[in-house]
Amino acid sequence: MSKRLKEAYSLFDSSKVYLLEESVEILKKFPPAKFNETIELAFKLGVDPKHADQMVRGAVMLPAGTGKVKRVLVFAKGDSAAEAKNAGADFVGDKDMIDKVTGGWLDFEAVVATPDMMKELGKLGKILGTRGLMPSPKNGTVTTNVSKAVKEIKSGLVEFRVNKAGDVNLPIGKISFDKKGICDNAMAVITAIIKAKPAAVKGRYIKKIAISSTMSAGLKLDVNAFTAV
């Protein structure tokens, strides 16, 4: 264990659970890295993703933003393509962009598509799907209102999806954010995860939540502090 990590562990009790604000205060006291670390939330959910009716997926707007402006690729034609460009999309196209991605180009962090493009995007399922980038109506990235989708992504929209192990991990900002910004973003994410609870899930839905920064130890949050978990 590095000297930096040992010092971090000395600032908290790894066997305890903490309230959100308390955990953020501790995180911000950790010895800093040489870059602006990303703050992340990790959830262990009581779901079985093998069953379609227990899939947890969605998107949430972070009130304080992400601290990073994503490069957005939009698959659209005609007026929708022009609308996407005007909204600030970094890359816009249809067959030309499909061919480019098929060829191995992946210089983007978010994807939006109009409904008429989805049939053609099927061939990119293995490329985009494995990276969590496949557009979906559930998170608002398959839409006729591409302008709204692009602006939301640029201003702090993050997507989440449970993995095969029943976990959800997503960034909620930067360590340079003030405590209020990090807490506001965390609460927005926790609320969104709670609202995304599948009707088929019985028993405890959120089993564990941990908060950490890129290079830090993780702190366990008191799940009982959040309602309807």
Provide an overview of this structure.
The structure is a single chain. By secondary structure, the protein is an alpha/beta fold. The protein has two domains: 14-65 and 158-225, 2-Layer Sandwich (Ribulose 1,5 Bisphosphate Carboxylase/Oxygenase), CATH 3.30.190.20; 72-155, Ribosomal protein L1/L10, domain II (Rossmann fold, 3-Layer(aba) Sandwich), CATH 3.40.50.790. The protein is built from eight helices and ten strands. The strands form three sheets. A five-stranded mixed beta sheet has the order 1-10-9-2-8. Helix 2 (20-27) crosses helix 8 (179-195). The chain is globular, with a radius of gyration of 19 Å. The two termini are 34 Å apart.
Short characterization:
The protein has 229 residues and is of the alpha/beta class. Helix content is 30%, strand content 22%.
Features:
5-stranded mixed beta sheet, Rossmann fold, 229 residues, alpha/beta, 2 domains, 3-stranded parallel beta sheet, Ribulose 1,5 Bisphosphate Carboxylase/Oxygenase, single chain
Secondary structure layout:
Layout: H1 3-9, E1 17-18, H2 20-27, E2 38-45, E3 57-61, E4 72-75, H3 78-87, E5 91-93, H4 95-102, E6 110-113, H5 118-121, H6 125-129, H7 146-155, E7 157-161, E8 167-174, H8 179-195, E9 206-213, E10 219-221
Parallel strand pairs: 1-10, 4-5, 4-6
Antiparallel strand pairs: 2-8, 2-9, 3-7, 9-10
Helix pairs in contact: 2-8, 3-7
Sheet-strand content, in percent, reads: 15-25%
Shape: globular
Approximate helicity band: 25-40%
Mean pLDDT: 92
The CATH class of the largest domain is Alpha Beta
Main pleated-sheet profile: 5 strands, mixed
Radius of gyration: 19 Å
